[in-house]
Every structure is written in C-alpha cells, then in structure tokens.
Write a structure and sequence with these properties.
- With 299 residues, this protein is an alpha/beta fold.
- The protein has one domain: Metallo-beta-lactamase, Chain A (4-Layer Sandwich).
- 18% of the residues lie in helices and 24% in strands.
- It is built from 9 helices and 14 strands.
- The strands form 2 sheets. Strands 6-5-4-3-2-1-14 form a 7-stranded mixed beta sheet. A 7-stranded mixed beta sheet has the order 7-8-9-10-11-12-13.
- The chain is globular.
- The termini are close together.
- The mean pLDDT is 97.
- It binds D-malate, manganese (II) ion and zinc ion (ZN).
- One of its GO terms (biological process) is pyrroloquinoline quinone biosynthetic process.
- InterPro entries: Metallo-B-lactamas (IPR001279), PQQ_synth_PqqB (IPR011842), RibonucZ/Hydroxyglut_hydro (IPR036866).
- Pfam families: Lactamase_B_2.
- May be involved in the transport of PQQ or its precursor to the periplasm.
Length: 299
C-alpha cells in the first residue's frame, strides 16, 4: 500500500493567511524550522497506478502538481485518480472538489449525511453527474477505492461541519458526520482518522495491531488557540482531542500495538510543527511522526 500525504495541516494550512501565532510567524519569516503545509488530504494506492484521494483540500491542484504519481498519463484527458472519499464535510476536506470539475470520471464516496451537505450547497452542482458519480457509503461498508485498494469507513466521535453546527452542536457523537477510514491491501492494515473527539474502547480495539495509523494531530493542548490569542474555542469544542496530557491521543494510543503512528491534520498553532521544539521532541519520544506535505509511506 502506498500513502502520500498531500496536505498535513488542519483547516487554514500553515502559515494561515491571516495568522501571526508563534508558529505562523516563523513560517512567514521563512524560518527553516517550520515547513509550510497545505490542508488535509491523502492519496492512497495499492499498485502505485490507480489512486484514491481521501479528502479534497482547497489546495488540491497544487498538491497534484507536485505529486508525479497523480499526473495524467495518456491521451488528451486522463487522471490516475479513480475516486475521492470524504471523512467529513469540513471546508478543508471538500473545498478542492470545486477544482476537479473538468469532465474526468471519478467516484465521490461519502456517507449520505456528508453527501446531503454537498447537495445543500448548489455550487457543488459544477460536478457534472455524467462524470462524477456520487456514491453513498454506509458505516462499516467495504468498498474498493482504487485497483486492489479496499477500504471501510467507521464512525468516529466528532461533530457536524462548522457551517452546519447550529446553536448547540452535538460534540463527540458517533454517526455519519465524522468517519475514519480503514485501508486493506492483502494482510496490511492502515487507518486514517483526521478528526477525532475521543478515543473510546471500540476505536482502540479497532486500531490494535494496525500496521499504520494516521491520526488527528490538530492541537497539542486543548486551550492552545485561546492561549495563542487566535480563537476562543477549545479543541474539545472543535471536536478534536489533543495530543498531549493524560487524556490526550499519545496517552490513549500508547498501549496499543501499532506499527507506525503519524500525526496529520495539524493546526498551525501546534508547536510540534516547529522542528526542534520541546513538543516535537516529546511526540518523537512517544513514537509519533509529524506528517509533512509530500511524506510518502509504504505499508
Ligand atoms: C476542523 O477540522 O475543525 C475544521 O476543519 C475547522 C474549519 O472548518 O476550519
Ligand atoms: Mn479540519
Ligand atoms: Zn497560526
């Protein structure tokens, strides 16, 4: 199984267009300790020829241009992208669909709840149904995303997309709004969970024995955005568990037998994005890698 991290940052990217938090300031200054990152997306393949995108970031065109495996290969119009699977309806995960509208066929997989969110936004009607087949996926359903690449989606504690939240959002609920993905090629098993509010026993049991887990790395600590002076929401309120601390993801996953663990969907306020920071060293000590754009994983 081949996995390319197309974009490793959370919503906003790094640096974020309007942000001068400690990490973004270093990125704006071109400091070599902070590598810019685009928003959250993966490309996955079983054979290196036929690919699936998991989420479709607003920067998808740039991401494709710097990933030779995703270049068109023959004839006048072509793409090795067979399908796109969405894990939620957030803008960082669906915005790029508006740029993939030029009449190449692909399948767009999502739960019916996520499809409904797209249907409610008429701008997505630019995706011509003659070419883009919108396929509803049930939780726990197995599907073939690309040649030889089996996947299954499962509910993850999360919340509705920011623009659908309403007055009193239901945070941490499990349903069709936020899903994780299991990939299987032969006996190899990998997981992609870019948004997760809590690691419950069911999810932990699922991840046990995985060859690779790419996990929600939005925040280092729950009140990080408030401390940085750039927001008023905690990670918990945003539906993201933090990395550090007793209730953090590093602790929650520490007892599991997992071949390789990688943080993705990393918010620009997160100090692990600074290469030599104490937080980066702590994550590394716990066996975690910090994803960057262009990271290639073989599993
Ligand atoms: C999130 O992951 O919480 C969202 O992408 C936030 C956002 O839409 O900016
Ligand atoms: Mn996001
Ligand atoms: Zn920032």
């Amino acid at each position: 199984m081949y996995i390319h991290v197309l974009g490793a940052a959370a919503g906003g990217g790094l640096p974020q267009w309007n942000c001068r938090c400690d990490v973004c300031r270093l990125a704006w200054a071109g400091d070599p300790r902070v590598t810019p990152r685009t928003q959250s997306s993966l490309a996955v393949s079983a054979d290196g020829r036929s690919w699936a995108l998991i989420n479709c970031a607003p920067e998808v065109l740039t991401q494709i241009r710097r990933t030779p495996a995703l270049f068109p290969r023959q004839g006048q119009r072509d793409t090795p992208i067979a399908s796109i699977l969405l894990t939620n309806g957030d803008v960082d995960h669906v915005g790029g669909l508006l740029s993939l509208r030029e009449s190449s066929p692909y399948r767009l997989y999502a739960t019916s709840e996520i499809h409904a969110a797209l249907r409610d936004s008429p701008v997505f009607n630019v995706l011509n149904p003659d070419h883009v087949e919108r396929v509803g996926v049930d939780l726990e359903q197995t599907l073939t995303l690309a040649e030889g690449l089996e996947a299954r989606i499962f509910a993850v504690p999360g919340k509705a997309a920011l623009y659908l939240e309403g007055e009193d959002p239901d945070i941490g609920s499990e349903g069709e709004a936020t899903v994780g993905v299991e990939f299987r090629v032969g006996a190899r098993r990998a997981y992609y969970i870019p948004g997760c509010a809590a690691l419950n026993e069911r999810l932990a049991a699922r991840l046990e024995g995985a060859d690779l887990v790419l996990f929600d790395g939005t925040l280092w600590r729950d009140d990080e955005m408030i401390r940085a002076g750039v927001g008023h929401k905690t990670g918990g309120r945003m539906g993201h568990m933090s990395m550090a601390g007793e209730s953090g993801s590093m602790a929650a996953l520490s007892s599991l037998n997992i071949g390789r663990r990688v943080f993705v969907h990393i918010n620009n306020t997160n100090p692990v994005l600074i290469d030599d920071s104490p937080e980066r060293r702590e994550a590394t000590r716990h066996g975690w890698e910090i994803a960057h754009d262009g990271m290639e994983l073989e599993c």
